[in-house]
Amino acid sequence: MNASIDLYTMSIEYAFGRSLEIIRDLIHGNGLMSSTLSSITVDLDYDKNLTIYPRYKIYEEGPDGGNCSCHDSPSCNEKQYVYSNFNKDSRNFSVPGLVIGCYGFEALLQSNLICFFNQSCIDDLRAAILFKDNFTTSALDQSKLFYFNPNSTIRSMMEKAMVEKWVNSSNYDEYYNQCRPIYCKYTYKNKNNTIYIITTLFALIGGVSTVLKFTVPRFVKLIRKILLKRQQRRTAIDTVA
Fold first, then answer.
1. What would the mean pLDDT of 109-138 be, rounded to a whole number?
2. 57, 70, 77, 134: most buried by Cβ count inside 10 Å?
3. Closest residue by Cα to residue 99 from 76, 83, 120
4. How many other β-carbons are positioned within 10 Å of the β-carbon of residue 9?
5. 131 or 75, which is more confident?
6. Residue 67 counted as domain residue
7. Are residues 38 and 136 in the same domain?
8. What are the angstrom distances between the C-alpha of 95 and each of 79, 80, 89, 142, 148?
9. What is the pLDDT, as a whole number, of residue 35?
10. At residue 208, what are phi and psi to the nearest 5 degrees?
11. Which residues pair with 78 in a beta bridge?
């Protein structure tokens, strides 16, 4: 039963993770452009006719470190910053754990939720985006984590089908009622090796020897008694005759 459940959970995780990989390969393999222009930069030429020159964006970090072009890898990324205005040079602060990249989906997979486990980080975000609604935004509770940790990437979570812990509640009575077997048969097959056979034979020989040591002397005494009584009877008959 447990083996079947483990196989079931593994198949779900594999299927979910495989679907993600197919989506990633399709996006990058077909050279799809992001609607937010996060994968390309567009240069415009107004000389005679309006000409558009798209080129792949370059980010600060890649799989091998250093600058990375979205042409070479969809995993290029850099830190996610909050800006004080629309000017890219006016960085206010970086958001821990969050990155931007060629595609929003890729950036999400490489990000983690460490900021959302920190109340100060959440308060800074609310202040930066001018969130005026009057309700409390509490940090996530790290003590409730079982498999993951605050530094776990979104990708590692999705590879586990976003399941923190599988809880198995097996009802064997219900399982038995559904099956309703007429009879149960248990077969155990085992191929004994040479060492096992030799040790078993020695054990049998030792057991037989012990039994013979106990029974043979008594059996011999009994036979001697019977023979002695017969001899005494014959002697008595000969004397009378």
1. 85
2. 70
3. 76
4. 15
5. 75
6. yes
7. yes
8. 7, 6, 16, 19, 20
9. 79
10. -65, -40
11. 100
On whether the CB atoms of residues 118 and 95 are closer than 8 A, the answer is: no
In this structure, the chain runs to a length of: 241
Residues 41, 160, single domain; the answer is yes
Is residue 241 very low, low, confident or very high in pLDDT (cuts 50, 70, 90)? Answer: low
Q: How many domains does the chain have?
A: 2
One domain, residues 200 and 160: no
182 within domain boundaries: no
Q: What is the pLDDT of residue 109?
A: 92
Q: Give the pLDDT confidence of 175-189 residue by residue, as tens digits.
A: 777 777 777 888 877
Q: For residue 6, what are its two tokens?
A: 């483990």
Residue 45, pLDDT > 60, answer yes
Does one domain contain both 116 and 228? no
Is the torsion defined by CA of 7, 12, 17, 19 positive or negative? Answer: positive
What is the extent of the structural domain holding 230?
A: 196-241
Specify whether the CB–CB gap between 63 and 72 falls below 8 A.
no
d(Cα 234, Cα 72) in Å, to the nearest integer? 116
CB 203 within 8 A of CB 185: no
**Euclidean distance between CA atoms 21 and 31, whole angstroms:** 15
130-150 pLDDT, tens per residue?
Answer: 666 677 788 999 988 888 999
Q: State residue 119's pLDDT score.
A: 94
In a shared domain, residues 21 and 81? yes
- 61 within 8 A of 68, measured Cβ to Cβ: yes
Partners of 101 in the beta sheet? 77
Sole residue written with tokens 């997979």? 109
